[in-house]
Specification:
This protein is mostly beta strands. Helix content is about 0%, strand content about 45%. The longest helix is centred in the last third of the chain and has 4 residues.
């Protein structure tokens, strides 16, 4: 209709805004761009969002709870319908679900969580050749520790008694060696001592004599420590007994007679009689010591089923190890590159035997620092006051560190004990390298690290001290799964998140801070000191990897950003190996409740804070919320209003970031276009899990397609579909309130047109609402009005009501030709203000009331005028 003195609104859609009034928003702000994406051709034009399409069903009607794309493979967790989340892998390149070996629902899967309300989401991160998974459903069931020792001893033939050198063996251990029947265990073990005062020997010989008849305490056995408390210089251990003649490990430094010598070791009782051995006689025993091995499981020392992992290393590592029939324990002198979860074969083991855990016994003693040139180290220990047993004893081959000890020094021969009494004792340790010595110290601590001891998931069927074992891992096409803990030093608590920096796995362990693995070995933690603790009492709840370069070009991670909920953020940089590892608290007290909202982007690390989207840029600066009122990137309220923020899930490609959020009870998908700096949404395709792959997204939808991966693209192409979940996708383009009407006068719309293109089969509905959200016009075009050609389309505006501000909404079905662009609105200012509802007027004067005017009471006829 023709209007007098028209005014023009030229609205060019430029992204979504939280603002209601266009006067408080950027030019072209929209309240909704639902299921519309920016046109690849023209600014300020919008086209239909392509439908998400089914890619592969992982487990029908069972929720995919976590995922991570590594290369061309998706690794993740999916419910099995039995209350457990189990691992899966899908090859995008071959379009095939891969078999994941090693899954044992009784041991290494995670209990499923509730699908509603807040949760602790599973987190996946690639670290080296493993994809590490944290999940609160892992059982945290304890993993027993293992011990193994080798010692020289002799049994009494036909009896269950024996004796030999001091050992770490404990009751319940399996014992193997010459004369020991299969499946024999240690029943009891105690330290014993003896002495004799008529010993004699010749200088330079390695033998001496004693008189069994006058021996006090135990007679000597091979393996016993032997020493004197005088100046004879006997310090060693007995290697053989022949009646009253003893052979020992050294040579006599002097000729002696009538000397008192002392000896001692462990006496034990076993579950089955020795088949061969020595015979006790009044003249002593005749025996050469045999080397026996004991293996056993100790009480748990903190290791448990805390997290899981996919192994894709392709590892094939061989080491010689000692194995014992009927025992799951193996011992190795070295295990470089071996991690828990690898398969172990050889030595009669089943090919599918898994290595559960590794430990490296470490013993600490107080000792006397050696002098220059010393070949022994003297250390002190405390013995059991009940059994007088030596419960800790350095073993041959252990590495020694401490004051006055040369680097690389090992225990050269079995140590021997002297002066054992209730409560204390002294151990003489032979050194493989003469000591350089030290000065100024009377005592020092000495650490002995020994054999690597492993626990298998099955018992060995043979016994061998030199079994050649092969440790193998999975591959990208045949991944291997297991769950457990870090080797050598377990995590202090169950982690809630994991991230990678400098090839190490950093675990968020609540109040235990940031605990990190060895470089390249995410399931190995050599030292208990491998942790960074903020010391502010806050629990770490989430981690993010801040890239150095664009994630599209495979940039290096330069820092880990840690989150203590929304109370604090931390930055970890450097590496322990370089001496520059650093933990710093960031300068803004913010964070996130949404671990799955943390995503790497082209311009930093993005996360959803309680006040909207924020970015940590490459310099470590935290941005203001991207969505502050009045900004050109103005969407924040859906995130501020989020129900169950831990359910927010997001991802980023080269040109977009998107998140699903429950906005006040409705799940919505909001997208931020990186190059245009525009928000669009809320889209109707929502998801609980999302991962980027090239320019696409792989998603687990909410509400349909449960257990199926869908591919979602924000870039329309010729093959794009616009039917989703069996129904046509519908769009909704809605303006904010227009125009900026400072006078608040009543307005009337006279002419309107919009740049549009769509298939004739998809009519459009155009609806107008006033500032009260009351509909003031509605227009539905007919199929003949629509054309696939893009043009300015005028729509009829008969019988339109007046308004103060106007909001226009365009809705319809999406198709490949849909284009929505600028809207031209001509309106007339009617020159009066539009009152909503009734406005009270002054009441009329009543009878007898005086009538007044501007100058006071009205008069007439000589007196005041009154109402009737």
């Amino acid at each position: 209709m023709a209007i007098n003195k028209p005014k023009l609104i030229n609205w060019r859609p430029a992204g979504c805004s939280d603002a209601i009034d266009g006067a408080e928003a950027f030019e072209g702000a929209a309240a909704s761009l639902q299921n519309l994406v920016p046109s690849p051709k023209t600014a300020h034009q919008w086209v239909a969002r392509p439908a998400a399409t089914s890619t592969v069903t992982i487990s029908s009607n069972n929720l995919i709870t976590a995922g991570l794309v590594v290369g061309t493979t998706v690794y993740g967790m999916v419910s099995n319908g039995l209350g457990q989340d189990v691992p899966f892998a899908y090859s995008i390149s071959s379009a095939s679900v891969l078999n994941v070996a090693g899954v044992n629902s009784a041991v290494n899967t995670a209990s499923s969580q509730t699908t509603v309300g807040d949760w602790t989401p599973p987190i996946l991160a690639q670290v080296g050749s493993r994809i590490v998974v944290t999940h609160p459903g892992f059982s945290n069931t304890a993993i027993s520790a293992a011990r193994a020792s080798s010692f020289t001893a002799t049994g009494i033939s036909g009896a269950i008694n024996g004796a030999g050198g001091y050992t770490l063996a404990q009751p319940g251990d399996i014992l193997t060696g010459v004369g020991v029947p299969s499946n024999t265990t240690v029943l009891t073990i105690n330290a014993i001592q003896g002495q004799e005062s008529h010993c004699a020997g010749t200088i330079g010989a390695n033998t001496f004599t004693f008189q069994p008849a006058t021996t006090s305490g135990s007679i000597p056995y091979p393996g016993f420590a032997v020493f004197d408390n005088s100046n004879i210089g006997i310090r060693g251990f007995i290697t053989a007994c022949a009646g009253s003649v003893l052979t020992w490990s050294g040579t006599n430094p002097n000729t002696f007679a009538g000397a008192t010598l002392y000896w001692g070791g462990d006496e034990f009782v076993i579950s089955q009689a020795f088949t061969t051995g020595t015979t006790l006689t009044p003249s002593g025993i005749t025996a050469t010591g045999n080397t026996w091995q004991s293996v056993g499981l100790s009480a748990p020392t903190g290791a448990s089923y805390k997290f899981g992992w996919f192994d894709i290393s392709g590892a094939s590592i061989q080491y010689t190890a000692a194995i014992t029939s009927g025992s799951p324990i193996i011992s190795l002198t070295t295990a470089f590159g071996v991690q828990p979860g690898l398969l172990v074969s050889g030595g009669g083991l089943a090919a599918t035997t898994t290595l559960i855990n590794l430990s490296q016994p470490s013993l600490t003693f107080t000792g006397t620092p050696p002098n220059f040139g010393d070949t022994t180290l003297t250390i002190q220990f405390s013995a059991s006051a009940v059994s007088n047993a030596v419960v800790n004893m350095p073993l041959s081959g252990m590495i020694i560190t401490g004051a006055g000890i040369a680097p690389g020094t090992t225990v050269a021969a079995p140590p021997f004990v002297q002066g054992l009494s209730l409560g204390t004792g002294t151990i003489i340790v032979p050194l493989s390298i003469a000591a350089p010595g030290t000065v100024g110290l009377n005592t020092a601590s000495y650490i002995f690290t020994g054999l690597v001891v492993g626990i298998l998931a099955a018992n060995a069927t043979t016994t061998s001290a030199t079994a050649l074992l092969t440790f193998t891992g999975g591959t990208p096409t045949a991944p291997l799964w297991y769950a457990g803990d870090t080797a050598f030093n377990p995590l202090p608590s169950q982690p809630v998140s994991v991230a990678m920096l400098a090839g190490r796995a950093y675990f968020a362990c609540d109040g235990n801070g940031f605990v990190y693995s060895d470089s390249g070995l995410p399931c190995q933690r050599t030292y208990p000191s491998q942790a960074l603790v903020p010391l502010d009492g806050l629990s770490i709840s989430a981690l993010g990897e801040l890239p150095l370069l664009s994630p599209i070009t495979g940039g290096i991670v330069q820092a880990i950003i840690g989150f203590a909920g929304v109370k604090a953020m931390y930055q970890i940089t450097g590496d322990a190996a370089l001496g520059n590892l650093s933990l710093n608290k960031m300068n803004i007290a913010t964070g996130t409740h949404a671990p799955l909202s943390i995503i790497g982007t082209n311009f930093g690390l993005a996360f959803i804070s309680p006040d909207g989207l924020r970015i940590v840029d490459f310099s470590g600066k935290i941005s203001d919320p991207i969505g502050d009122p009045g900004s050109s990137q103005q969407i924040a309220f859906p995130f501020i209003n989020a129900q169950f923020p831990t359910r927010i899930s997001g991802a980023a490609t080269a040109n977009s970031m998107r998140w699903t959020v429950n906005n006040g009870g409705t799940n919505q998908d909001w997208v931020f276009d990186i190059s245009r700096k525009q928000w669009h949404g809320p889209h109707t395709f929502v998801y609980s899990m999302i991962q980027p792959f090239k320019e696409f997204y792989l998603c687990q939808p909410i509400g349909f397609g449960i257990g199926t991966l869908f591919t979602s693209s924000l870039i329309p192409v010729g093959a794009s579909s616009y039917t989703e979940n069996g129904a046509a996708i519908t769009y909704n383009m809605t303006t904010v309130l227009l125009p900026e009407n400072d006078e608040q006068n009543a307005l009337r719309l006279g002419e309107a047109s919009i740049f549009v293109g769509s298939l004739p089969a998809n009519p459009m509905t155009i609806t107008g609402f006033d500032e009260r959200n009351v509909q003031i016009f509605a227009y539905s075009n007919t199929p003949s009005d629509m054309t696939a050609y893009q043009r300015m389309f005028q729509f009829d505006l008969q019988q339109i009501d007046v308004f103060t501000q106007l909001q226009v909404q365009l809705t319809g079905n999406c198709d490949s030709t849909l284009v929505l662009g600028r809207m031209m609105l001509k309106y007339q200012d009617l020159g009066y203000q539009r009152y909503i509802g009734s406005v009270p007027l002054p009441s009329a004067p009543g009878g007898g009331d005086a009538l007044t005017g501007a100058g006071g009471p009205l008069t007439g006829g000589g007196g005041p005028l009154t109402g009737r």
